[in-house]
């Protein structure tokens, strides 16, 4: 039996260093996307207990976001990630675009598609400990059910309702949990 093709090794530390900071990435965004994301960043809340846990991290955590400002899920979730990362001086965020990094994107397909955003979580030695995206787990289930029954419009409506009711709380928790894993000092 033939061996499957191997993807080239990626030096994630180098890739992270080459990424943009949140402020630089947001500044480069075009038109209404920049205003929308600035508003979401301003309104997203990191609960006090989550902020305290993030501030207690002793080791650096590196987060790499694969994002493009034209994507609705990016505009909705990337500002929340930036807000969560900003809650700790030990959490460092950089962003890259998927178009210039197909070698990275191909490793994080969602049901065979290049769905974004994808957030990658690394410890201080750039060992990947998890990834997140393109939306919270509950929303992924809505989309899967919509595909399963052939009603994507109903799935999109459920996702919209979910986001309005949840107000980023689940996204904050899921992202903070992954940051906590990346910064863990013990099992």
Describe the structure.
With 187 residues, the protein is an alpha+beta fold. The protein has a single domain, classed as 3-Layer(aba) Sandwich (Glutaredoxin). 51% of the residues lie in helices and 12% in strands. The chain contains nine helices and four strands, in the order H-H-H-H-E-H-E-H-E-E-H-H-H. Strands 2-1-3-4 form a four-stranded mixed beta sheet, sandwiched between helices. Helix 3 (31-43) crosses helix 5 (72-86) and helix 7 runs antiparallel to helix 8. The longest helix is centred in the middle third of the chain and has 15 residues, at 72-86. The radius of gyration is 17 Å and the shape is globular. The model has no long low-confidence stretch (mean pLDDT 96).
Quick summary of this structure?
The N and C termini lie far apart (39 Å).
Topology:
Blueprint lengths: L11 H7 L3 H7 L2 H13 L4 H8 L5 E6 L5 H15 L4 E6 L5 H4 L12 E5 L5 E5 L4 H13 L2 H15 L2 H14 L5
Parallel strand pairs: 1-2
Antiparallel strand pairs: 1-3, 3-4
Average pLDDT, all residues: 96
DSSP E strands, number: 4
Percent range of helical residues: 40-55%
Number of domains: 1
Notable traits:
187 residues; alpha+beta; Glutaredoxin; 9 helices
